[in-house]
Hints:
Structural class: alpha/beta
Mean pLDDT: 74
Number of helices: 11
Strand content: 5-15%
Oligomer: single chain
Strand order of the largest sheet: 3-2-1-4-5-7-6
Amino acid sequence: ATIPPAFIISLLCCSELSSCHVPPDVDTALQLDSCTTHRTRPSFSAPVLEGESGLPWDQGLYSFQLYPSGIPSKQDYLRSSRSKLYAHLLQFSAEWTRAPSPDPSASSFLTVATSLLEVSNPHYARLWNRQWEYVFHIASLRYFQHHFTNHQGRGESEGQERLHVLDAGAGFGFFPHYLAANLEGWSVTGMDNDAAVMAGYRAMKLEPPHSALEMHEGSMTDMLLADNSFDAVLAISVLHELDLKEKGISEMRRVLRPGGVLSVSLTIAHCSSCTSDEGHHSLGGAHNLLRIIQEFGFEELVGTYSIDADLKIAAAKKDLIVTSTWMSREDSASMPWQSRKADEHLTVSCHVFRSTKK
Length: 358
């Protein structure tokens, strides 16, 4: 299939709105539509979709195009964070955090996150890297669904089997639940090998029928899942935690069906001398990991890169790219860790691969 031009601004286009405001910090020369709607970044508790209760979850993704791959530019990042899709995701996160289960005896997310898991910043949708990663991965799934399958959404064809996506290393948060509730035509499975995470799900009683998400306990290097059982796998900033990265990649390829898609995001220390308390990828390590993924039988789906295809060149343009240092100044609430050292000198890079196995 021919890959259309990379999706940069179309996520933000909304043809039914008659007026458009472009904030002064956004480069108007990069607009692709005369009616591109921008929002200021809402506070976490803001009613971001007030007056738009009928908004489709994927409005703005009508073009089914890829997000820019690699390290995002500040302009792309700001546009994404002001999009209707991100606003919808943010509202879902706020509501899910307050009342995730109809069972009144269930523990709240904040109680479990802060006491059982000792999470420093439980507002995951606000985290600097997740603001880009979550929307990137949603766009990847929609792109795959539109261009490589016959599944155009729930109800498109009576009796049509749903597509299956695995959130590998799902952790404890709202995002897999957002996908399960809003990703039309898909069923969602989460997997994590952290006993505390699984205990958290049990404490919140986040099991069917209270949740559409099917959650499994298991390691990414030894998945207790059948061969060829998923159409897509998400690996959201988890590969740096694997000691046996090749084994993890091999397992993801095994559970993917032929032609399935692997959507990966990497949190990277963006200079050669940078270190992180969290053990994130170095630039060289990220380069090597992307090479290994392709050696295991994946081809990258790209339209264009946000800054540059070479991560080292892109990372050197630190005035143009999204970094944790920049975001700590823009929005201190977006920092995920209590340790200042862990927050420094990081960027994020996202990539989509398609399995070539037959």
